[in-house]
Amino acid sequence: HKDLIGIAPLAPWEIHYLLDEAEQWVALNRQPAKHADALAGLTIINAFFENSTRTLLSFEIAGKRLGADVVNMHAAQSSVKKGETLIDTATTLNAMRADAIVIRHSSSGAVQLIADKVDCPVLNAGDGQHEHPTQALLDALTMRFWLRSDSCPLSDEFAKLKIAICGDIMHSRVARSNILLLTTLGAEVRVCAPPALMPAAIEHMKVTPFSDFNAAIDGVDVVMMLRLQNERMAGPFIPSAREYRHLFGLTPERLKRAAPHALVMHPGPMNRGVEIDSSVADMLERSAITRQVEMGVALRMACLDVVTRRARGVEGWNSL
Ligand code: CP
């Protein structure tokens, strides 16, 4: 693969390969001096056409910790605002001879369009409702660290995990990438949403759909909550926060239905008091939400390292 556009084209061994690579960077990031020079002399452009806190900052930190020069292009301050097309923007970035380009865009497929026009590797930082592959990979890395920790009674096997992904499945690229990754690794995946927020195509994915949240989380090992993406809702269905919390919010009482050891995850940003109560989100012994952010930096270091290997003449990934 030249690029990292989605989880869909990845084989199980490629997913594990990226997770294995990320582990060394988790260890480095926990040291006082967090610097490596694997990408010294390389230039990485983060081109974000949609808002972001976690993904943008963690890609920037990841590139800098590996010694690269990192520049950020925010669409709101760019010539996109003057009417420049996506293809002209891609051609412009390509002419600057970046060594990797990280792109977030509100349109599904926009990242692939740019990847087809530029010479360097392109990494998808979230495109519309399509995929957010580094989020799914960092979520898997978080689960794998938890499975291997002393506090987890389970064996280190994704194939034995029961995971419920709950919330706005219809508009969520995080849900799609996680479903693809977790089912590829053999996990049992349940998805739960109000009927209006469950995509028809869910029938073609290897998951069990639920509209009853209590039933969906019964006995699961991991509860992954998703945000209501009001900004992507054009139709009549925008439930009130109160209604939504009543039926689909993760409260301490509801969490008791999951397995006693169950891990709580959320990709952020959270709507506290809507899809998740603060008392659950901030539960030290159960919530992995800040751990997910920590894993995000290490995972993105691994992705930047791996996709630039061919250009650097280093074995691995593209030569496999
Ligand atoms: N999880 C995630 O993609 O967060 P940001 O939108 O803040 O990048």
From TrEMBL:
Catalyzes the condensation of carbamoyl phosphate and aspartate to form carbamoyl aspartate and inorganic phosphate, the committed step in the de novo pyrimidine nucleotide biosynthesis pathway. Reversibly catalyzes the transfer of the carbamoyl group from carbamoyl phosphate (CP) to the N(epsilon) atom of ornithine (ORN) to produce L-citrulline. The keyword Transferase applies. Its EC number is 2.1.3.2. It comes from the Bacteria. Residues 160-305 form the Aspartate/ornithine carbamoyltransferase Asp/Orn-binding domain. L-aspartate binds at residues 82, 173, 227. Keywords: Pyrimidine biosynthesis, Transferase. PANTHER family: ASPARTATE CARBAMOYLTRANSFERASE (PTHR45753:SF6), ORNITHINE CARBAMOYLTRANSFERASE, MITOCHONDRIAL (PTHR45753). This is Aspartate carbamoyltransferase. It comes from Croceicoccus marinus. Carbamoyl phosphate binds at residues 54-55, 104, 132, 135, 268-269. Pathway: Pyrimidine metabolism; UMP biosynthesis via de novo pathway; (S)-dihydroorotate from bicarbonate: step 2/3. Belongs to the aspartate/ornithine carbamoyltransferase superfamily. ATCase family. One of its GO terms (molecular function) is amino acid binding. One of its GO terms (biological process) is 'de novo' pyrimidine nucleobase biosynthetic process. Heterododecamer (2C3:3R2) of six catalytic PyrB chains organized as two trimers (C3), and six regulatory PyrI chains organized as three dimers (R2). It catalyses: carbamoyl phosphate + L-aspartate = N-carbamoyl-L-aspartate + phosphate + H(+). Residues 2-144 form the Aspartate/ornithine carbamoyltransferase carbamoyl-P binding domain. The lineage of its organism: Bacteria, Pseudomonadati, Pseudomonadota, Alphaproteobacteria, Sphingomonadales. GO terms for cellular component: cytosol.
